[in-house]
Design a protein that fits this description.
Elements lengths: L1 H5 L4 E4 L7 H10 L4 E4 L1 H9 L3 H24 L6 H14 L4 E9 L20 E10 L2 E6 L2 E2 L5 H17 L9 H14 L11 E3 L23 E4 L1 E6 L2 E5 L2 E5 L2 E4 L2 H9 L2
Parallel strand pairs: 1-2
Antiparallel strand pairs: 3-4, 4-5, 4-6, 7-8, 8-11, 9-10, 11-12
EC number: 3.4.11.9
GO molecular function: aminopeptidase activity
Pfam family, one: Peptidase_M24
């Protein structure tokens, strides 16, 4: 079979070359004598990082379903309800909107926002508590994640300042999500917002990752990244601050990279973040 696929070629590309058990690798070599076996991972990465129109359509639909779920989460995240009720309402609404799976729901209120990836519990939510809730929704294998930081009832001045820093960083990031922009410049711009407000110590990891068949995939740039954004890359913001006295939280919204700038895959979340408090 390998010989037929090669059709006379002398190089065989294998994805995951360094993860293949030795006995299987020996069988591949025996089935293709005289053929050079090379690592094809770079080829596959390039194919996966740029999305086709059909892939983008799947991500947009997953984003729509995720936004439908989050609208229901906001409706049920009120004083007196348990965290599980709000999380369950969100998951149910997303499934009713057409989601084939909920990869995860992260949920924490009050002091539990600092759990970063905690799950919903029977804790009763109260007015004045911040909520940290994210939901990853899958459609046709493709995953979109949404997260909007908010406070139940009236936010304190300290909470407002904290949330506005996250919103500012997310809105600054928008200017750099464009084909041809160096990814590291985007990361540094987000970090500069945190530094301006004296919150660098609460910034624990880079503010963006790719999306597709995995909830988080390439690219995942840090502030030293030299690669450029390319048209039809699909990414998710992941802008967060953890352990701040006012609370802990994160923003997640999806985008398609274009030459003119980002196109939102999760417009309901984008509208809220652009509007701010």
């Amino acid at each position: 079979m390998i010989g037929q696929a090669l059709a006379g070629g002398k190089r065989l590309g294998v994805v995951g070359l360094w993860d293949i058990p030795a006995p299987i690798f020996e069988r591949i070599k025996a089935a293709a004598p005289g053929v050079e076996i090379v690592d094809a991972l770079p080829v596959m990465v390039k194919l996966r990082v740029i999305k086709s129109p059909h892939e983008i359509a799947c991500l947009a639909e997953a984003g729509r379903q995720a936004c439908a779920g989050y609208a229901k989460l906001l409706e049920y995240a009120v004083d007196g309800n348990p965290e599980t009720m709000a999380a369950g309402a969100a998951e149910g609404a997303a499934r009713m909107a057409g989601a084939e799976d909920i990869n995860f729901t992260v949920f924490g209120s009050g002091e539990r926002t600092a759990t970063v990836i905690g799950r919903a519990t029977d804790k009763i939510m109260r007015n004045g508590e911040m909520v940290m809730a994210a939901m990853a929704v899958q459609y046709q294998g493709y995953v979109a994640t949404v997260e909007y930081p908010f406070v139940i009832g009236q936010a304190s001045d300290a909470q407002k300042r904290f949330l506005n820093v996250l919103f500012e960083a997310a809105n600054v990031q928008q200017k750099f999500l464009r084909a041809g922009v160096v990814m590291g410049e985007m990361v540094r711009a987000v970090k500069a917002v945190f530094a301006k407000h004296g919150m660098t110590q609460y910034d624990l990891y880079p503010p963006m990752h790719g999306i597709g068949l995995a909830e988080a995939e390439s690219p995942y740039p840090d502030d030293h990244a030299t690669a450029e954004f390319e048209a039809d890359m699909c990414v998710n913001s992941d802008i967060s601050l953890w352990g701040c006295p006012a609370g802990s939280n994160r923003i997640e919204e999806g985008f398609v990279i274009t030459a003119a700038g980002p196109r939102s895959l999760t417009p309901a979340i984008r509208e809220r973040i652009a509007r701010g408090l």
